Structures are given as C-alpha cells and as structure tokens.
Leucine-rich repeat-containing N-terminal plant-type domain-containing protein (Hibiscus sabdariffa), 581 residues
Amino acid sequence: MDFAATIFLMLLLLTNYTLCHGCIASERRALLRIKRHLIDSSNMLADWRTGNGDCCEWLGVFCDSGTGHVTELRLGSSNDTIALAGTHGRLKLGGKLNPALLDLKSLSYLDLSNNDFDHTRIPDWFWNLTCNLQYLNISGNHFQGNVPDFLTNQASLVLDLSFNNFTGSLPAISLNVTVLDLSNNAFSGSMSRFLCHKMHRMKLEVLSLGGNRLSGEIPDCWEKWGSLVAIELCDNNFSGTIPGSMGALTSLQSLHLRNNTLAGVMPGSLSNCTELLTLDLSANRFSGEIPPWMGERLSKLIIISLGSNMFQGRIPDQICGLTCLQILDLSHNNLSGNIPSCIKNLTAMISRNKSDGKISYKTSKGCFSDNIAVTMKGVVFDYSSTLKLIKLVDLSDNNLTGEIPEEMTRLIGLLSLNLSRNHLVGKIPGNIGAMNTLECVDLSENSLSGEIPESMNRLTFLSYLNLSCNNLSGQIPSGTQLQTFSSSSFLGTELYGPPLTNASRYSKIVAPISSNVGENVDTGTQVNCLRLFLAQQLKVIVVEKKGCSGWSSVAGDSMMSNPIVNKSIPTESLRLDLVTE
C-alpha cells in the first residue's frame, strides 16, 4: 500500500471514529456560544467547556449515535436525565437565547421549561426552530410578547408554551401540530380565527387554552378537529352555549370548561363523545336537567363535575349505571328529589385503588395526565398525580329531600361524602361505619334526627366532620375519635357530651376547618342557619348577618345563657338568636 493510500485510510478511520464517538465540531462551538449568553448561577453546565471535547457527553445534550449531530437539548428542570446526572435542586438557567440554536440543524427536541428567563421577550428568529422540531417546551419561564402562527413545521410537533406572559391573539397552527398547550398566559380575543375555516382534517390531539383571557362564544366549527382527545378551556371568559359540533369529537376523552360564563342546556350531540373519561362543566351557568343519556351513552366516565351551575330536577337514575365513576360533584345547583338508592351501583367507589394514581388519556405522543379541582375537608385541591386515588360524592347545597339511602353505605371506597345544605330528613345511616376509608363527612344544615350511630367509631381515617345545624340528639359516642373534633362539628343540634360544653353548645356557629394545608379555603363551608333559643321569657333578639369574613352583629345584644330549646332552621344569610334570662 503506497503512502497516499495509507493516509486516506487513516483519515477515513479517524472520521468514522469521530462520527461514532464525538459530536460535530461546529455544533460544539454553537453550544458554547449558546452557553455564553446564559446565566448559570448554579454552574449546572460546568462540563460545557472547550477542553471537554465530546459535547455529546455534556449535561442535557443528546446526539445521534450514527451521525454525531445534536438532536436533543434537555435543559428543563423537570428533565429526568438531569436528575440522574447527580445534580441537586432545580436547574435554573437565565439570560438570553442565542441564535446559535439555529446552527443545530438536526435538533428535533428542545426543553427549556421552568427556568428563569424572567420577562424576556422571545426573539423573532427563535420561532424558526419550529420548522424542524418535533418537541418544544418553554413553559414556566415568564417569556413575553406575541406568538406567531405555526404554519411551516414539517414534522409532527408537540408545543408547550404554558405558564408564560404571552399576549395577543391565538396563533394559527398547521395540521401537523399534535399537542398545543398555551394555558396560563394572557392570550385574548376570540377562538374563531384559530378554530374555523380549516380545509383539511387537523391532527391536533391535545388543546389546552385554560387560564387566559379568551372571550366570546366557543365557535361552532369543530368538524375538522376529530383527532382531539383532550380540550381544556377553563378559567377564561367564554360565553354562550356548548356548540353542537363538539359532538363530532368522537375520540374526546377529557373536556374541561370550568369557570367561564357558559349557559344553556347540555347539547344532546355530546352523547356521541362516548370515549369521555372526564367531564368538567363546573362554575358556569348551565341550566335544565341533567340528561339521562350521560349515564346511558358516556359509560366510561370517571369524573363528572357539574358543580356551581343552575341544573334542576332530579338526579337521573341512569347516572347509577356509570360503573367507572369515581368523582361525582353535583354541588351548588338546584337539584331536587331523593338521592337515588341505586347509587350503590357505582362500583368503582366500592374499592380503593392501589395502582398508579393518575387518570391518563392516550395520544399518539404518549399518555397525558388529567387534573381537576375538588373540594375536600373544606379546602379546594387541584389533583393530578393522585387523581385516581380520589373517590368522592358531593351533592351539597341543593334542594334534595328524603332520607340518606342506606345503600349509600355500600360505597366503602369513598374518601369524601358531602351532603350538606339540603333538606334531608331521617337518621344518619346506621351502617355508615362500613365506609371505613372516609376522611371527610359533611352532613350539616339538613334536618337529620336521631343519634349519631355507634358505627361511626369505625371511621378511623376521619379527619373532617361536620354534623352541625341538624336535629340530632343524644350523647356523642364517647371514647372515640369523635371527641377529637372541634365542638363546631356538632353545634346547632341537641347533642351533648364532649367535645361540647354548656358554653360551646350555644356559641356562634363556625364550620370546622381541616388542619390539612391547601390552596384555597372554600368559604361555602361556613355554616349559616337560624338558631332559635326559646325560654320562659324572651329578653334579647340578636340578628347577625353573614359577610365575606363571617358573621357580624347588625342589631341586638350578645347571647345570654340557659336556653331550653336549641333548633336549627336553614337560611341564606341571616342568623337570629332569641335569648332568655
């Protein structure tokens, strides 16, 4: 072999070695320029340096094993690879974005989530990256500015821009965008330009626009969006009704419309969305009856949240056919009639889940976890990672009548039962102790009578109890954890014994608050009822008005002692104390 051939072979071998065992030199230089503009106060990118030749080994950098090109930058704080690299705490990068990112021609995955680019405006050149990217996550950075249309991306794209300060109208997207999360920004205006006038069937599977300033009606043009699996439009200013064309979304598994000003009845076309797992319409102005087809057609439902609306009529028996249902929230409506005894057929509430705590919906890009806000123990919690472990029935603040069905005690997997602020009569079911996983029981502001069942002694996980403002009588079972609750759990009744004292029985009624830490206290748990104290001689009338901060006296004098009768009558905003000598 001559000298020239030998040199050629050595160069070829060196090139192959470089391709298989190191990154491209030009891309190493690009990464160093990118680092130069970053603020890395925790020195997390210490191995990004000139003397460390193989940039494919640098933290957060991933290369194609065959070509050596950089294909992924995983610099988000939620990245498992960073955690496995032995770093401690959360990665927080700041500074500016460098256009050297454009020199990474094979980059398909970019994660800069949850860093500290505080109040930085995204430069125009940055959006050109989306032409080739398959994944872009810049969430949780307080980035500012408008977002351009995404019409040039060639590959299937997952786009997460949530938890920033982006403003302006919603961007138009190409049919290749499969996941779009623009939640918790300041986007405003209508959805019409984004949603309507599409020529082709869109590939979008997840649409999350919650926590913005979007307004107007939800457009009635969903026919081209049949791939959607999840829609999240919570916490905006949408008005009008649910459009009938949403019934074309036959793959839909999760629909969240919470906290808007939507009204009208539930359209019958939603009965076509037979894959639904989660239906959250709470905190709107929906009216009419709960349609029976919910229990007949939407058989896979795990979560129904219809609270804080204006639904009326009876709870349909067909709801009892939802054997997968774990969360049933119909609170704060105008529902009437009895609680259906067939509620015992909600078999998913009979056992406690021990598996993965997430409720997930499947897409072509993997599984995404659902979330929902529920009220437990007087506190509003937002559940996601443990959502599948929550089993709850909340029928509070309606006009329900009749007795609590004994059949309800078969739901032995329930964590929370709230039947407060209704017109329920009769006794507390004697077998309530069989529901031994209960952590929260609220039966306050009804007309329940009789004694507290001895079986309540078996509710060893109970950490929140409110039986106030009822006609309950007799001694509170002693020698149990019932004595560990505040006396406010039993006020406005004819009960006696610890924790009640003579003084506490007739003190002002304030609902018990759980010691568990949560985000927002549900002020709706404050007790409001009339307590009539009748005695031999009427001396003072005290009228107290319920305000945002509680009860305040508006007339009269303070209470005296020795009342001989203590009865409770539900009311909206006034409390009247008739006091004796």
Observations:
- The chain has six helices and 42 strands.
- The helical segments are 3-21, 25-36, 80-84, 192-195, 293-297, 502-505.
- The two ends are 121 Å apart (CA to CA).
- The longest strand covers residues 538-547.
